Amino acid sequence: MKDYPTTALCNVALLGHGSSGKTSLGEAMLFSSGAITRQGRVEDGTTVSDFDEEEIRRHISLTTALLPIEWQNHKINVLDTPGFTDFAGEVKGAVRVVEAAVIVVDSVAGVEVGTELAWAYCNERNLPRFVLIGKMDRENANFAHAADTLNQLGGNFVPLQLPIGSQASFEGVIDLIAMKARKGPQGELVDIPPNLKKEAEEARVKLMESAAEGDDELIMKYLDGQELTDDEIRHGLRFAIKKNLIVPVLCVSGTGNLGVGALLETLIAFVPSPAETEPEVAKTGAGTEEKIGVTSNGLGALVFKTTADPFVGKQTYFRVFGGTVTSDSRVFNANKNAEERVGQLYLMRGKEQIAVTSVKAGDIGVVTKLSVTLTGDTLCDKAHPVTFTPPVYPPAATSVAIEPKSAADSAKMGPTLTRLTEEDPTLHWFNDSSTKQTVLEGLGDSHIDVAVRRAKTKFGVELVPSQRRVPYRETITRSFTTMHRHKKQTGGSGQFGEVHMRVEPNKSKGYEFAWEVFGGAVSSSYQTSIEKGIKSVMEGGAIAGYPIVDVKVAITDGKEHAVDSKPMAFEIAGREAFKKAMHGASPVLLEPIMKVTVVVPEHNMGDVLGDINTKRAHVQGMDQSAGKSVVTAFVPLAEMQRYAADLRSITQGRGVFSMEFDHYDEVPAHVAQGIIEQALKDNPHLRAADSD
Hints:
Number of helices: 17
Structural class: alpha+beta
CATH topology of the largest domain: Rossmann fold
Radius of gyration: 32 Å
Oligomer: single chain
Distance between the termini: 79 Å
CATH class of the largest domain: Alpha Beta
Helix content: 25-40%
Number of domains: 5
Largest sheet: 8 strands, antiparallel
């Protein structure tokens, strides 16, 4: 691949709903440009983008693939992103490093859930965008209907093209700037069919009006009744697109390779090059802000994607905003405060590695086997450390417990989960000490399922997911005084220890221990042993096996034996006395309460409220934001285990939610009874303690 100047570079993300045709379009762009000699099919698992084993099996994109395309002395870095919401993290990474987005809309379905999400992600960065109505050769394809559905997105949509025919008779597109038809896979320029001439002329007037609004001189000329030249239209459109004043609408058939050449020319003509965009704002080591662009001397590159491959090793995808990264050099990771050695640099085309000696400002490259660098990190010069704002990823929406299938898998489970989460920042794992489970969090059931399958296919580790246990806590609601005498005589030296204690609620203050023994009834040297016994119960629970919190324990009296008293005897006495005290002090279960924010279309508000009220929720407020309804509520975690699937079903996938831990609250008695009964069934030793 030849070396292109920054002015000839173009970075574009393909966004849209799942199965809207993004991957087929990327394949057609590669084929039209001559990068591949045969156009693959998603159904056959032969596309350049979907090379992952899971992608081929499921026939959907799961990760962002990089497709560098050479066209008319330009290089277009196309980032083909997944369309399913479970893999939105990949979309967020891609949107962070491009100058524009092409939002692909199915010609039959029109705007769908994934379209709305893609639009929202573009809005977050005020990213210039194009809408491409794809699959125009599909049965029931309807350009006008699909274009009408765009209005719900809230943009100023202006067709740059009109289709010639539709469904099986789709032949190509009409270029409304040149006023020529482009027919067939080669995009042959011919006259506009007579039956479409009037429609094309009317559409060109609207296009000219939109172009004029992009420039003061052009609007004056247009208002004077003068017609704009083709070059003036292009100039006005380029400015309006860059400022996000208009959204051009195009049409294409990826599988039929119709309109693809016209799309590539449009991207070159109207997507701002990295040299034309505003510099990126970075933070310096001193905490000040600095703008880094293509003319900057210092290096500034943002890592937006990481893949973990058992054979190639870790692959780090980065976008260079300023300076140049060269092979066999050293760079500085400002986030980790560590130097990294850069080996061979590559440009990626799907999974194909194309070796290069350098990656300049504005371009996207890949390096393998960096030690500490992860997604979101900034690579820079050691003498001048800077950091860019990383992509903001959606929070986890679901979680499961993960267990190794065998002892061999157990040893490799931790490192494998770490590698999976390094590859995907929307995955998280941790060990929950209160439930003795390893927990894996993600954006949805499919997201978790793909991670588990990848653990097996990529790293040879079989993991078994199951429902996560809720990390309940135990506490008390009243004071109680009790005692326990531990006496054991087995011949020779025996064991003796007697402990009197009082327990009290200690709400929101945690655990406290007090020594109130006077007169030397028990030597203070046994204080540590007694407390050790108490803490052993606090960790393992007394009524349902969950950690005990917010309790004050006071040792008030006791007895010891000159010969038989030992630390172990007082540890046992303290443990058993505390168990008795817990059962006598009206113990209750506490459950984690999550602060939940649900964003749904207004027409789904009633159904969502009805559903969330069945989950023991306390609704805190309802609001409107950007045409959506927002519900804020406190909901027990136990009721939120399957909420991702529930909300998706209620809103046809249009609802999103986030949740974060807020506080612990008492479990209602009727709910607690079932939890305790199950705990006693699973842990017979708790029942034995109860009967003491």
